[in-house]
Structure formats: structure tokens, C-alpha cells
Design a protein that fits this description.
- The chain is of the alpha/beta class.
- It folds into 2 domains: about 270 residues, Luciferase-like domain (TIM Barrel); about 80 residues, no CATH class.
- The chain is built from 14 helices and 10 strands.
- It has an 8-stranded parallel barrel with strand order 1-2-3-5-6-7-8-10, surrounded by 8 helices.
- Helix 3 links the parallel strand 4 and strand 5.
- Helix 3 crosses helix 5 and helix 9 runs antiparallel to helix 10.
- The termini are close together.
Length: about 350
């Protein structure tokens, strides 16, 4: 397992130029520390492509990934074109993470109905791969526009494609059609069901002779360092993590469909997760954050003093995570950099206690 950096997306509390400078500082520190990659996402704030292009211009070795580009935001051909361009500009450092998003973002932001997500994702990945391999974007002669191929020198046909997935069917699809899986709020000690779904999908795409295709598992983990002996049940101690979790449990979906509430339910926190969601959607966001269970944070985040990091990193390595994308949530820039330092320092001890190698 290697370390990665998760930058999320730029919000509205600080000027974009200020956030961009902070992202560059974090990416450069990650590169210096030997982190393998940096990942940017998008919701309805900053887009991932512009941020990753900015980072590509300010780094030299660090891998770059989208976690994720939203499927309803672009046609599959446009996504393949974008991926090939960014990969070429960065010297072959780009990995394409895709996600179908949820009802609120798909319909409420992009104006695309959230319907048949599995079928849409499968068809979308098929077009992306075909375009990157210089095949026709639309191979149907009856369409009247068949035959157009990517007009870009030397696209990388094996550019990695990863899928964000939480539910069992989506996770199984990631194992079947993608080169990697992008889980969110992964609880490494309780990931058996998700990993089994991933393996079922992977079994359907074995190479000739039964050989297995390698699969990346790039797990984003919200992270915050605390003082030794800090009381995590005090809402003020881990406030940034609680706010982050409340946003996903409450704001990334509707009352009827929120994949993060479903994930929390599978971990045994269903009743509290729904209470968080209700408070958030009713506009009581501080209350929603305070309701986030400490046990949920401990299971799905990196939270605690530096001395606790080796054990938590080892748990993710033992679960099969190949890249742990650390999302530093401390409010001060120097604390975010210190978190990257602490994780890098803890990794050797973590890997020494697991059977999996870096």
C-alpha cells in the first residue's frame, strides 16, 4: 500500500486562488514525501479537470487522479478526450476516476435524470475505453455520424479507469469493467461484503488461462490529527470530520436515496445516520454534525494522535487498499502539511505489521 493525497473540491469559504495555492503546497509536500498520487473531485463547486491540470503544471512525478469525474456532466467521448489530453500534458500521470453521482447532482445540477445507473456506467466506460484505444466513438453506421476517432497523437490505451462505488451492485461492476475501485468511508475491518462484491465482478474478467487482472483500490480517508488523550466524543475535538461526514450523510443525496446513509447503515449506524440526514436537510447543520457517531468516525476516518496512525494504516493495508488517499481536514495549512508528514512517518511501521508489501 502507498499513500496518496485527496484534495476534494474547492468550496465557497475561501477565494479559489487561495485554495489553489494551498492545493499546490499539499501536492508538492506529498511529492517530496513519496506519496504516489493526488486526487481531485467535483460536485457543484470546482471541477476536477482544471484543478488537476493546475497540479500537473506544479509537480513533476506525482500521479494525478479524478475522484471523480461525474458521468452525467460530460459525454463519454468528451471524458475520453479530456483524459487523453490531461494524460499527455502530465507525461502519462493521469488516472480516470468516474462516478455516476446521485439524484441531487445528476438531476438538480446537470439536468440529467438519475436512472439506470449501472447500465449507464457500463455503457459509458465502454465508450471511454474504445475512444482511448482509437476506436470510433459511435460505431453504429445507422447513426449517420459513425467513424470519428480521437485525433490526438499517441493516446494511452491502457490509461487506468476507476469507478467510485458504494453499494454491492456498483462495487461488483467496478470489479468487472474497471481497473480500480474508489470507495468512500471505507471501514477496513468491516469491508468483507464490499470486497466480496468486488471479487465477484473481477472473476468475470479474468485473463486467458485464469490469470487475474490487477485491481487498484484507492480509498479516500478523511483525516485529522488530535492531541494525545483528546476526547473524541467532544464535538469540538473532531469538528472538521463531523462536518465532512454530515455533508455526505445529509447533503449528498435525497431523503429517499443517499448511498452514504446506506453505507453507514451497513456499518450499524443507520438510525443515527438518518437523524444526521434529517437535521442537515432541515437546515440544522451544526446539530447534524454533532450527531455524527464517534464510532463511525473511528471506523472510517484517520482520527487521533500520530501514535495511532500505524495501526490504522495497517488496517487499510490488510483490507487490500493499494493507495490510501488521505484527505487532510485541519483548518490551518500548517496542520494539513503536518498530517501528511505524520502519515509518511507512520507508513513503514504500519507495513511492517502486515503481510502486504508497499
Amino acid at each position: 500500500m502507498e499513500l496518496a493525497l485527496s484534495l476534494g473540491y474547492f468550496g465557497t469559504r475561501r477565494p479559489v486562488a487561495e485554495q489553489a495555492a494551498d492545493a499546490v503546497a499539499l501536492a508538492r509536500r506529498a511529492e517530496e514525501l513519496g506519496y504516489g498520487s493526488a486526487w481531485a473531485s467535483e460536485a457543484y463547486g470546482s471541477d476536477a479537470v482544471t484543478v488537476l491540470t493546475w497540479l500537473a503544471a506544479h509537480t513533476t512525478r506525482l500521479g494525478l487522479g479524478s475522484a471523480v469525474l461525474q458521468v452525467p456532466a460530460r459525454s463519454a467521448a468528451a471524458t475520453a478526450m479530456t483524459a487523453a489530453t490531461l494524460d499527455g500534458l502530465s507525461g502519462g500521470r493521469f488516472s480516470l476516476g468516474l462516478g455516476v453521482s446521485g439524484p441531487q447532482v445528476s438531476a438538480g445540477w446537470h439536468g440529467v435524470p438519475f436512472a439506470a445507473p449501472l447500465a449507464r456506467t457500463r455503457a459509458y466506460v465502454d465508450v471511454v475505453r474504445r475512444v482511448l484505444a482509437r476506436g470510433p466513438a459511435d460505431p453504429d453506421p445507422a447513426s449517420g455520424g459513425a467513424g470519428l476517432r480521437l485525433a490526438l497523437p499517441a493516446p494511452r490505451p491502457d490509461l487506468p479507469v476507476l469507478l467510485a462505488a458504494t453499494g454491492p451492485k456498483n462495487t461488483e461492476l467496478a470489479g468487472e469493467v474497471a481497473d480500480g475501485w474508489l470507495p468512500a468511508f471505507l471501514a477496513p475491518e468491516d469491508a468483507e461484503e464490499q470486497l466480496a462484491a468486488l471479487a465477484r465482478g473481477r472473476a468475470r474478467c479474468a485473463l486467458p488461462g485464469g490469470a487475474e487482472r490487477p485491481l487498484q483500490v484507492v480509498a479516500t480517508v478523511p483525516a485529522l490529527l488530535t492531541e494525545e488523550g483528546a476526547d473524541l466524543d467532544d464535538p469540538a475535538v473532531a469538528a472538521p470530520l463531523r462536518g465532512y461526514a454530515a455533508l455526505y450523510l445529509g447533503g449528498m443525496g435525497s431523503r429517499e436515496k443517499n448511498v452514504y446513509v446506506e453505507a453507514a447503515t451497513r456499518l450499524g449506524h443507520g438510525a443515527v445516520a438518518r437523524a444526521v440526514q434529517d437535521a442537515y436537510l432541515d437546515g440544522r447543520r451544526e446539530e447534524a454534525a454533532a450527531l455524527v457517531p464517534t464510532a463511525f468516525l473511528q471506523a472510517t476516518c484517520l482520527v487521533g494522535p500520530p501514535s495511532a496512525l500505524p495501526e490504522r494504516l495497517a488496517a487499510h493495508a490488510d483490507a487490500g487498499v493499494t493507495a490510501l488517499a488521505v484527505a487532510p481536514l485541519a483548518p490551518r495549512p500548517e496542520a494539513r502539511l503536518a498530517l501528511l508528514d505524520a502519515c509518511a512517518a507512520a507508513l513503514p511501521a504500519a507495513l511492517a505489521t502486515t503481510s502486504r508489501s508497499a
